Amino acid sequence: MKVGITTTVPVEVLYAAGVTPVDLNNIFVLGNSTKYMNYSEIEGFPRNLCACIKGIYGVAMLEDIDYIVGVTEGDCSNTKSLIEVWRSKGKKVILFGFPQKKQYQSMIEEINHLMDHFNVRLEAVDDMKRELYPIRQRVKYLDELTWKTNQATGFENHLWQVSCSDFNGDPKVFLNELEEAIQDIEGRKPFPSNEIRLGYIGVPPNISDLYHLVEENGGRIVFNEVQRAFTMAKETIDTNIFNMYLNFTYPYDLQGRLTEIKEEINNRRLDGIIHYTQSFCHRGIEDIIIKKSLKVPVLTIEGDYPEKGDARTKLRLESFIDMLKDLKE
To answer: What is the pLDDT of residues 227-244, one digit of tens each?
Structure first.
């Protein structure tokens, strides 16, 4: 059985239950996004709605998805309405929420509800957590190949980290492909040390060539904030499943995210930050606080449909990196 997820959820529960998780966002962005968008708009979704919402709706309806775990707290504010539409179309949906007060007991209740629904015991979930742990650590190592040894590209870093939401539906195959990628990266010469080092914060981008455009102008993204959070790689093998998802920064308040962002600006010696916002998304308001809180230059870019960067985005990236070069000199 394939279970669609609207964002990162305790995937250990799904794998322990013997079902295959499918991150609907990843299918939308990496697949035939136009097909999914067109389907949703024909169904009546407005044009001035976040493309991701329309995209994941289309994926769930057009692909072989048997069930959906919809995140009602800690992600997109439109998901609740989206769930209502899915249910009206006969789709089976179970709700999951990240408790906004970050209370341990509330997280226990949420994960227990998920385990009860899929008829799986905590011991099996813990076993699966331990099975996924070394995979998460190898993705962490690939991250180090990006910012420590300067051998992996920003896009490779992004892609492997964001894929930890569902491990592409098969952790064993995922690990084998990851090891092949790491072996290739380890054999490369490092990127030039004088490149502008950038951090990327915000939801994963719908601008498909963003990383290429940055590198084309003499920069390199060596920190992907939300994608890194998806890996859960900072946790120890003995961290229990409840604390693991309480420590997951993305669903909670901005201040927790900013604390980690500031740490990584120092650790990775970042020259600047690219803040990506999705059109019509409430998270765009956070840009006001981000620019006030960070002590490095911040470029805010906005995306909508999955597509290559337009002329304006290209020009702004080029100007931003040129400015950072001048500041560095």
So the answer is: 999 999 999 999 999 999
DSSP result, 15-56: HHTT-EEEEHHHHHHHS-HHHHHHHHHHTT--TTS-HHHHHH
Distance of CA 58 to the CA centre of its chain: 19
SS3 216: helix
Residue by residue, DSSP assigns 278-299 as: ETT-GGGGGHHHHHHH-SS-EE
Q: Which residues contact 275 (CB under 8 A, 6 or more apart)?
A: 201, 202, 287, 290, 291, 298, 299, 300, 301
226 class by beta-carbon count within 10 Å (0-12 exposed, 13-18 middle, 19+ buried): buried
Question: Which regions of the chain are under pLDDT 70?
Answer: none
pTM for the full predicted model:
0.94
Cα 184 from Cα 7, distance rounded (Å): 30
Cβ neighbors of 313 (< 8 A, separation 6 or more) are: 207, 213, 301
User: Could you tell me the two tokens for 171?
Assistant: 């952790």
Whose tokens are 């960067």? That residue is: 309
- What pLDDT is recorded for position 239? 97
Q: What is the pLDDT of residue 48?
A: 85
Both tokens of 326, joined, read 């001048």
Tokens of 268: 């990775």
Nearest one of 228, 232, 181 to 200, comparing CA atoms: 228
Per-residue model confidence as pLDDT tens digits over 289-298: 999 999 999 9
- CATH code at 2-117: 3.40.50.11890
Domain locations in the chain as residue ranges? 2-117
Residue ranges of the alpha helices (H) in the chain? 11-16, 24-30, 33-42, 51-62, 79-88, 104-117, 122-147, 154-162, 171-186, 210-216, 225-231, 241-246, 254-267, 287-293, 311-328
The residue behind tokens 């502008």 is: 196
Residue 96: phi, psi to the nearest 5?
-140, 140
